[in-house]
Amino acid sequence: MARLLSLRRRRSALPYLLLAPGLLWLGVFYLVPALNQVYVSLQDGTLEQGYLFDWNWSSYGDALADYREQFGRSIGYAATATAIAFVISFPLAYFIAFKAGRLKSLMLFLIILPFFTSYLVRTIAWQTILADDSTVVGAAKTLGLLDGDGRLLATRTAVIAGITYNFLPFMALPLYVSLEKIDRRLIEAATDLYASRGVAFRRVTLPLALPGIFAGSLLTFIPAVGDFINAQLLGSSRQYMIGNVIQSRFLVVQDYPVAAALSFLLMAALLVAVLLYARALGARNLTESAV
Amino acid sequence: MSARLWATARERLIALWAALALLYLFLSIFVVVLFSFNDNQGRFNLTWEGFTLKHWQDPFGVEGLGEALRNSLAIAALSTLVALALGTLMALALVRHRFRGRAGADLFVFLPLATPEVVLGAALLALFLTMNVDTGFHTILIAHVMFNVSYVVVTIKARLEGMDTHLEEAAMDLGASGWTTFRKVTLPVILPGVTAAGLLAFALSFDDFVITNFNAGQTMTFPLFIWGAARQGVPPQVNVLATLLLFGVLALMALNVVAQRRRARAVA
Predict the structure, then answer these.
(1) In terms of CA atoms, which chain B residue is nearest residue A85?
(2) CB-closest option in A172, A233, A264 to B230
């Protein structure tokens, strides 16, 4: 017993040693940059004369005043894409978890297969699929979904479709994981107690799938809200999102204070949302369903 | 009878929906592969103009493409190795040990996954600018290790949580040292998780555009090459290389399945 106790005490420094290198890396290259953004955002000056720290809060005022539209659009597009991704993925995840049988691992593999083809190349392929003379646009016109001179490329529809497509696996996988975990006997018990299949689904399956729904929504919404590739490749400047603004303010205009202010606002808003989610759900659920 | 019919119809509908969802995921991959055979006339490779094998015969026939691919492969391999080393240790600490600050560390590791890429890239570049660090190959590597560490920890943690700790206790009781126990018991058990995490990290690093775009300096990677080419038309050779990589992964997966079947049969 004494030996065991001393062993435990000797080991007590071990977890910190194991964590130290990784935490150090994340501290220096994630936490410090995140905080440094605040420092940069409060600088004042011009690119030619250089930027100096000056408690210049006006970057935040400028950022919000000039780019409210893009902020709103990002949230709108990301929320729409998340909702559509949910509608597409839920039956897919349900089928894989409950009905696929021997096809299960093959179908799961097919969901992650897009990750092995370059994101940019796939998004550029959507330019071909949605081009003005493409089959898809032709079919939409025949069905009356699109006017005779209507187009899909460079519209809101194309950007949202692209975002939905690109982040669909992030919705489908957590949904599958949570559905797969459900004890089938609970559903059987509900039907044995004379619940109809619809009621059993609404009162048993759906509530038990909630952690997956929350995790999937978050994992889709977060990259979607910051995305600028779809708006750039499938949209026009009328569809630009906050990511496009941050990218061009930073890399093209090199207006660092405003770019840092925008980026910090986006990060802070999302982190607050995530922490509220984590509190409501328990952080364990959140990080676990993420895999 | 009609309830039964309705149930069958509903099952069919779900199956059809699942098939359509997978088709949606595959449509663009199909276009990518198809257009590696396109005999495009101008600079753009966006409309079908006839079948050719000429791009496949000369996949590196575009200036800078080979170098970009080499850089991407090198960065992916190096960042995966470093992230695996850092992340495996962290996952072991977080799952196997109870200590003060564990919940906080857990959440902290998760935060980079909850931050949009554009923010991660911009914030890191702002730091490099503040510190007067030149950007290039090394800063891309730093950035990729940063986001890969979190993915590695989350993936390995999921595997470790299902593992029986009695195995390790048994090894220790039988007189094995901590290091021997780790080498002979822990490592073999977590190896599938580590492999999965490594594959994920490699794929994420190889395909990363947003964070790389901020921190690349003059260094060219495969995604940066594609982005740069997108405005004047992406050469079909890019489709050829993307297709080759996809088929490479498919072949590896198939080999893995065959090996697993053989092992299962050997055990039986």
Answers:
(1) B21
(2) A233
Indicate yes or no: CB of B213 within 8 angstroms of CB of A251: yes
Total domain count, chain B: 2
Task: Identify the CA nearest to A166 among candidates A107, A82, A96.
Answer: A82
Same domain, B74 and B133: yes
Residue B115 has a pLDDT of 93
Chain B residue whose CA is closest to A20: B90
- The CATH number linked to A196 is 1.10.3720.10
- Terminal-to-terminal C-alpha distance of chain A: 39
Q: Could you tell me how many residues make up chain B?
A: 268
Q: Looking at per-residue confidence, does B227 or A46 come out higher?
A: B227
The whole-angstrom separation of Cα B31 and Cα B217 is: 32
Question: Which residues in chain B have their CB less than 8 angstroms from residue A12's CB?
Answer: 99
pLDDT digits (tens, 9 = 90+) for A57-73: 888 888 888 999 999 99
| Residues B200, B70 within the same domain | yes
Interface test with B, best of A8, A29, A256 (most B CBs within 10 A): A29
- pLDDT-derived band of residue A6, with 50, 70 and 90 as boundaries? very low
Listed in sequence order, the residues at least 6 apart from A11 whose beta carbon sits closer than 8 Å to its beta carbon are B97
Residue with tokens 């599938």: B192
Does the beta-carbon distance from A287 to B126 stay under 8 Å? no
Note whether A133 contacts B47, CB cutoff 8 Å.
yes
**Does residue B103 sit in the same domain as residue B1?**
no
What pTM value is reported for the model?
0.88
Least CB–CB distance from A36: residue in B85, B126, B226: B126
Local confidence band at A133 (pLDDT 50, 70, 90 cut-offs): confident
- How many inter-chain contacts (A to B, CB under 8 Å) are there? 256
Which range (A89-103, A117-131, B165-179) has the least confidence?
B165-179
Q: Is residue A56 part of a domain?
A: no
Give me the domain span that covers residue B182: 63-234
**Alpha carbons B158 and B163: distance in angstroms, whole number:** 10
Looking at the structure of chain A, the number of domains it has is 1
CB-nearest partner of A29 from B103, B142, B158: B142
